[in-house]
Recover the amino acids of this structure.
C-alpha cells in the first residue's frame, strides 16, 4: 500500500474520506425522509389488483395475458414474470430494449444515451472475446455497432425535436 511521505497528505486523505462518508450518509437520510407519493388508484382498484383471479396485463399495450404467457399476443413484447431469468427468452428481451432505442420515442436524457452506448460496448467486448480476434467477424460486429449507433443517435435527435412520426403502414 502506498503511504504518503507527508503527514499533511495523510490527514487530508482522512478528511476527504470523512467528508465523502458524511455526504453519503446525508443522501441516505434524504432518501429515507422523502415524502411518499400517493397511490394512483383507490382502495377498490387495489383490492381488484390483489385478487388471484385478476389476469396480468402487458406493460406496453395493457392487453390481458393468459397465465404462463411468455409474449403478448397483441404487441409481441416479452411479458412473462421470469422471462429475464430464462437464457433463451432473455435474448428477446435484450433485443426489445435495443429496438426501442432505435425506433421508439426516447426521453432526452444523457443517462439514457450513455446507457445504450455502454450496452453496445458490452456486446462488442463479448463478441471479440468469443471470436478469438477473427478479423472478418470483428469487422461485421463493428459495422453492426456503427449502424446501431447511427440509428440510436438519429432516433435520439428525432425524439428530442418533438416532431410527430409519419404514420406507419
Amino acid at each position: 500500500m502506498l503511504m504518503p511521505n507527508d503527514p499533511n497528505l495523510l490527514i487530508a486523505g482522512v478528511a476527504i474520506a470523512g467528508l465523502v462518508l458524511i455526504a453519503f450518509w446525508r443522501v441516505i437520510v434524504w432518501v429515507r425522509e422523502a415524502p411518499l407519493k400517493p397511490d394512483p388508484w383507490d382502495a377498490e382498484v387495489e383490492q381488484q389488483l390483489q385478487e388471484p383471479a385478476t389476469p396480468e396485463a402487458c406493460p406496453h399495450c395493457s392487453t390481458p395475458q393468459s397465465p404462463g404467457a411468455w409474449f403478448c399476443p397483441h404487441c409481441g413484447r416479452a411479458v412473462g414474470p421470469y422471462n429475464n431469468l430464462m437464457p433463451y427468452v432473455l435474448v428477446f428481451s435484450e433485443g426489445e430494449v435495443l429496438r426501442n432505442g432505435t425506433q421508439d420515442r426516447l426521453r432526452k436524457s444523457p443517462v439514457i444515451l450513455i446507457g445504450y452506448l455502454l450496452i453496445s460496448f458490452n456486446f462488442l467486448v463479448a463478441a471479440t472475446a468469443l471470436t478469438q480476434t477473427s478479423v472478418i467477424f470483428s469487422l461485421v460486429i463493428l459495422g453492426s455497432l456503427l449502424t446501431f449507433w447511427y440509428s440510436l443517435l438519429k432516433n435520439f435527435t428525432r425524439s428530442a425535436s418533438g416532431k410527430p412520426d409519419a404514420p406507419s403502414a
User: Anything to note?
Assistant: The chain has five helices and no strands.
